[in-house]
Structures are given as structure tokens and as C-alpha cells.
Specification:
Elements lengths: L2 H11 L2 H30 L12 H28 L5 H8 L4 H34 L5 H26 L5 H18 L12 H10 L7 H24 L3
């Protein structure tokens, strides 16, 4: 069995693909439902207290999806990717693989399969949110939704690449995932600096709400930087893992 088939088989056998799909698809359904029925929910549990609730809009539905999906989704992506890329966490498996293939041959299918699974899961979640918003409220801007989904896909690919780079320094799966999440949080905090934010990968996260709301495309800088950083993380991880003993 080739390493490509093995990694694809492992993705399904370990239920990692179903974890990603469950996270993004569930929030894809929940976002429009929450936006549509939030006023009724507030009235039912408000206990007679008047609470101002914004009217349901497709933008609110898609924002609700992204807010929840990224919080839990990034966590799922980091752990699923770490389980594949931090293969040195199991010394016996690491020795077996390293004596039969090069680091590039080992990592390439793991990167590609996990990046594809992440992007596919997020895209399915977005499609569910779009259909749900269309049926319950109104159709979001299709062009903005597609463009924003592609930009968020690039950000998620960067998250997987960063996980691989972290795995070249840390052997354990939980440690790799948690450090990756911490780095993404730090990048988001640095993005609070106005002149720096347009260049950071975290700026792509804000594109989702902005483009669906009809905002202009102004994400070339963060898009190019994110692609370059993703390639750099992948190449660096191959070099570092190649020099590390199993």
C-alpha cells in the first residue's frame, strides 16, 4: 500500500475526517437557525425582560457560523493534523517509516490529505450555512461567500502547515496541537496593531464577514504572506524532521 493510500485510509479509519465534518457541518446548520430564531428564543427565556435583538439577516447567519466554526474548528484541525504530522510521537512507527522512505515522501501525503480534508470540511460547512440562510432568512451574497470561503481555506491550510512546523520541534501530538493554537492566537493578537494586520494571516479571517456584507476585496497582502508562510512552514518542517533522529 502506498503512503498516499495509507494516509487516506488512516484519515477514515481513525474517524478524523468525520470529526472535521461534524464540527463544520454542525455549526453550518446552527448558524442560520440561531440567527433566524434568536428573537423567539430570547422571548421564551427572557422572563419578561425586554432584550433588544437584531433582526435576522444572512450576514448575521454566516457570521454566526464562522464565529463558532473557527473557535472549535481550529482546535479540531490542529489536533487532527498533529495526529498525522507528529509521527515521531510513536518511536516504533517513526523508525519504520524513516527506514523505508524519505521525510519528503512521508510528509507530502500527510500534508496534502489533511489540508484537503480540512478545506473540504470547511467548504461543506459553509455550503450548509449558505443553504440554511437562504431557506430561513435570505440568500447571502454568492460571490462574496465564494471568495471569502477561498480566503478562509488558505488560512486553514496555513494552520495545517504551521502544525507541521511545530511537529518538527515537538514530538507529542497534544503539545504540537496546543502550541499551534497558541501561535495562531498570538498572530491574532498582533493583528490588533492596525498597520500590521493587513499583512498577517489572521486578516483573512475578517474577510469572511466583510466580503459577505459587500465589502471590497483588500486582502492581497495577507493572502500572499499566508501562502508564502505556508510554503515556508512545509519546507522548514521537511528539513528539520530530516535532521532529527527518530
Amino acid at each position: 500500500m502506498s503512503l498516499w493510500r495509507l494516509e487516506t485510509f488512516r484519515l477514515f479509519r481513525t474517524h478524523r475526517i468525520w470529526i472535521l465534518l461534524a464540527v463544520f457541518a454542525s455549526f453550518g446548520a446552527l448558524g442560520p437557525l440561531t440567527a433566524r430564531f434568536l428573537p423567539e428564543i430570547v422571548d421564551a427565556v427572557g422572563g419578561g425582560v425586554e432584550i433588544a435583538v437584531p433582526p435576522p439577516t444572512p450576514e448575521l447567519a454566516m457570521a454566526g457560523y464562522l464565529g463558532n466554526a473557527l473557535q472549535i474548528g481550529i482546535l479540531a484541525v490542529a489536533f487532527v493534523s498533529a495526529a498525522a504530522l507528529a509521527f515521531d510521537a510513536k518511536p516504533e512507527m517513526a523508525v519504520y517509516l524513516r527506514t523505508r522512505a524519505s521525510i519528503r515522501q512521508i510528509l507530502t501525503p500527510r500534508y496534502v490529505v489533511n489540508m484537503a480534508a480540512t478545506v473540504l470540511s470547511f467548504s461543506i460547512g459553509t455550503a450548509i450555512a449558505y443553504v440554511g440562510s437562504t431557506l430561513l432568512i435570505d440568500a447571502p451574497r454568492l460571490g462574496g461567500t465564494i471568495t471569502a470561503t477561498l480566503l478562509l481555506a488558505v488560512y486553514l491550510v496555513f494552520a495545517v502547515a504551521l502544525t507541521g512546523l511545530t511537529a518538527s520541534f515537538v514530538r507529542s501530538v497534544p503539545g504540537t496541537a496546543l502550541i499551534t493554537i497558541a501561535v495562531l492566537i498570538v498572530i491574532g493578537i498582533i493583528g490588533l496593531i492596525p498597520h500590521v494586520d493587513p499583512w498577517l494571516p489572521s486578516n483573512l479571517v475578517g474577510s469572511f464577514d466583510a466580503l459577505i456584507s459587500g465589502g471590497e476585496f483588500d486582502y492581497w497582502r495577507s493572502l500572499v504572506v499566508t501562502i508564502v508562510l505556508s510554503l515556508g512552514c512545509v519546507l522548514a518542517s521537511v528539513g528539520l524532521m530530516g535532521r532529527r533522529e527518530a
